[in-house]
Amino acid sequence: MRREDKDKAIDQLIEQTLAEQKAYCKRSKDITIDNIIYDTIYLEKKRLKNKKNSKHNRTEIVFWSEMERRFYSANSTEKEEILKEIIENYAIEIAGGYNPKVYNFAIKVVPYLLKAILVKEPLWKLFSKKGKEKINKNIDISGPLDKILHLSKMGTLIVTPTHQSNFDSIVIGYSTFITGLPPMIYGAGLNLFTNPILSYMMTNLGAYKVDREKKNELYKDVLKNYASISLEYGYHNLFYPGGTRSRSGKIEEQLKLGLLGSGLSTFIKGAKEGKKKNIYVVPCTINYELCLEARDLIEEYLVEEGSRQFILPNDSSNKIKNILAFAKKTVKVDTRIAVCFGEPLDIFGNEVNAEGVSIDSHSRPIDIEKYILVDGVPDFSFQRDRVYTSILGNKILKSFLKNSVVMDTHLLSYALFKIFQKKYPFSNVFKLVSTFGAECDKELLLETVGFLKEILFRKRDNGELKLGSVISTKSVDEIISHAKRQLTSYHGESVLYEQNGLLISNDLITLYYYHNKLTPYGLEKDLNLWLHQKV
Amino acid sequence: MATSKSVTVIGGGSFGTAIAYLLAAKQEKVKIWLRDEAIVNSINTQHENPRYAPGVILPSSIIATSNLEYAIADSSLIFVSIPSKSFRKVATDIGKYVKGDQILITTTKGFEQDTFKSMTELLAEETPCLKIGALSGPNFAFEILSGMPVGSVIASRFNEVIEKVQEALGGKTIRIYGNEDVCGVELAGALKNIYAICAGIIQAGGFGENAKSLMIARALSEMSRFAFYFKANPSTFLGLAGVGDLIATCNSELSRNFRIGRKIVEGLSLEEAITSIGQVAEGVYTLKAVKEKADNLGIEMPIVNATYKIVYENQTIPMVLEELMAIPHKKDIEFKFTCPD
């Protein structure tokens, strides 16, 4: 937020959250202010118990101990004051800033930073003109961009991307800049603010702090209200509705609706005050041919889902060595990214036309203010609004599926993994991925990829998904070679190598990650029937 | 939502008429939309629906119309009681006149044949309305129109929808229960029609009450298994929309689907059976749609398969029964419900 808005917004945030908490207690038979304060103090002290002894943590411990001490001897007026102080503490921690000068400087650096990560060029060439052209070649940005740009001038945008990688923020930042979309404020993990230089940059780029370790409801309410107030002030927002990065490599199947609901809150508040707010939700998918954290993410997923059935290979013992290898690899990979913006929606999940008017499936205009009437006047209704947000969430998920870009690495991994599943009939996937040395006939792989390619083309033509440039334009042989080169250049030879005319993988975990991208598209039944005749 | 002056029922079949009849007990004005001008005239002048509710005198507060725009105007609560085959078309037309803040309730128990979409999904797709619900349960129109006591389930994700329907319909002869599991309630209402056909076959074939009870109990497992795939709550099937409707429809000549089963045993072809009933038996279409879906998804549904073979493939009942009885033995209760500590 700009400095001139920040103080006013913080005051509003404190007042609004306090009023909501009091109203909530009044409505509910079971919850009192005492419960809210006690639960918050308890959860905060529990969180801090396991934290290392830093200056920041010590300050926090002092604050919560003081709140607890005062709480036990406080009367009802004093308890309200304690609640206000807790909210104020959160509000100040969360509120970010935005400095147009820092933003403009930083956004110019981003393309070069991206180039350093993605393009296989020597460092000295990074700042050349040719290098800039190459980055544009590697990132394919698509979607109704003119319409989104036009809507950003008529109202406030909430961009909701899929979340696969820590690089998502850089990629989306670059994409919005290159397409002329306006700057957005976004929630960033508290860990990114520990370095003073990075913290300065993040804050002035429009980031506000999100501490994912804080699980208490009061904190979440303050966070949601901050987003809501920033929308009220007309700041375009970016939320990752999936919450954290997808561990499995799958497209999000469920969304966290808390922050998503802030658009509706702003809309209702505006309508109640007679000020109509146009808020547009823009789903967006970020698709990587190679995900730089693929291996770490999928291991986390397998450990969590597979429980005892999956034993983590002992290869992450040397963290520093891994980080160095990661950094070295990132500058070597020449990989593709596709950013696909979906059709803009209103906060109820209806599509909007080029004039920003909500429309139904037959393009008939809808007066969305009618959705929020209670006894003829606009008002909040907790249960109703929760369902509305869930309807919006479902529409975003549908948009994710439709606008997800399937890349050559996903196709190759899917084909290989399905062949291995058929050939090695383990009782579950966790046992299969723990296996070492699965092999497959090259001819069978060619036929399988060809078979899948045909289905994917049909699905693309039906508008069910999007295809990356390699799949769209290359032959089956070229797709396999390109995907193999990509996977092995970053994840190592063990993912797939050739020996005596056979293709062998010693890293089914990585293949499983990329394979997961294709699981929601219902390919399995047809492929299994086909493989049944072949394997 | 704007203050409403009336409530509306779209569809003047037997169930649409029964709903209008119930609504008229509490509402000042009930509009019922139907295409047939002769029936419109009869309801407005004679207060009778001679085709679907002959002999029942309808309250004068029920006004029939063939003008959809007029039927919907001023109504905040709209019940849609249209056969699944023409449901989408009518929903699209409704979409032209609603403004988005009305409550839409489907009473149709079935799926769209080509897409396997439920009626609430069609309403959501074809209209701008978001507050949508489904009314289901053991509700024979004849018994409702005779003033006999009855219970229904209103399923909606919106509490407001549940409350408004309870308020509008609940009365001396009807109890309305709420459920948030829209998918489960709609699946239960549609699937039970298949088992009603099967029950008609068992009854007319003289296979006895033991066989019918066996079929009903296993049907409940089969329904829950199918619904589980669609993330519906299996416990919904233990309520009025599930076991309640299953018991009623599998034991009564009032059920059109039950009568279809009986007529097939009597030697009529499917087409002849449908013609002789004279009204839509949703189970016939649902059977085909569910069979295809279950095959596609690999869901085990032996009773659906057996009924399909008799109804659509003209296989003999003894042959199908022999196959059914040869299926390996299973556990009685397939679903475990976790008890709280």
What is the topology?
The complex is a heterodimer of chains A (535) and B (341).
Chain A: H1 3-27, H2 33-49, H3 55-72, H4 76-94, H5 100-118, H6 129-138, E1 139-142, H7 145-154, E2 156-161, H8 168-178, E3 185-189, H9 196-204, E4 207-210, H10 217-232, E5 237-238, H11 262-272, E6 279-288, H12 294-306, H13 319-330, E7 337-341, E8 351-352, E9 358-359, E10 373-374, E11 377-378, H14 382-402, E12 405-406, H15 408-423, H16 429-433, E13 438-441, H17 442-461, E14 466-467, H18 469-473, H19 476-491, E15 497-499, E16 502-505, H20 508-515, H21 524-534
Parallel strand pairs in A: 1-7, 2-5, 2-6, 3-4, 3-5, 12-14
Antiparallel strand pairs in A: 6-7, 8-9, 10-11, 13-16, 15-16
Helix pairs in contact in A: 1-4, 1-10, 2-3, 2-4, 4-10, 5-6, 5-8, 10-11, 12-20, 15-17, 15-19, 15-20
Chain B: E1 6-10, H1 14-24, E2 30-33, H2 37-46, E3 62-65, H3 68-72, E4 75-80, H4 84-97, E5 103-106, H5 119-126, E6 132-136, H6 141-145, E7 150-155, H7 159-169, E8 174-179, H8 182-205, H9 208-229, H10 240-249, H11 256-265, H12 270-277, H13 282-297, H14 302-313, H15 317-325
Parallel strand pairs in B: 1-2, 1-4, 2-3, 4-5, 5-6, 7-8
Antiparallel strand pairs in B: 6-7
Helix pairs in contact in B: 4-5, 8-9, 8-10, 8-11, 8-13, 11-12, 13-14, 14-15
Straight-line distance between termini of chain A? 59 Å
Main interface: chain pair and counts: A-B, 22 and 21 residues
- The CATH architecture term of the largest domain in chain B is 3-Layer(aba) Sandwich
Lateral strand order in the biggest sheet of chain B: 3-2-1-4-5-6-7-8
- CATH H level of the largest domain in chain B: which superfamily? NAD(P)-binding Rossmann-like Domain
- Quickly count the domains of chain B: 2
Structural class of chain A: alpha/beta
Strand content of chain B: 5-15%
Secondary-structure-based class of chain B equals alpha/beta
Largest sheet of chain A: 7 strands, mixed
The third-level CATH topology of the largest domain in chain B is: Rossmann fold
Broad shape of chain B: globular
Q: What is the number of helical segments of chain B per DSSP (H or I, 4+ residues)?
A: 15
CATH top level of the largest domain in chain B is: Alpha Beta
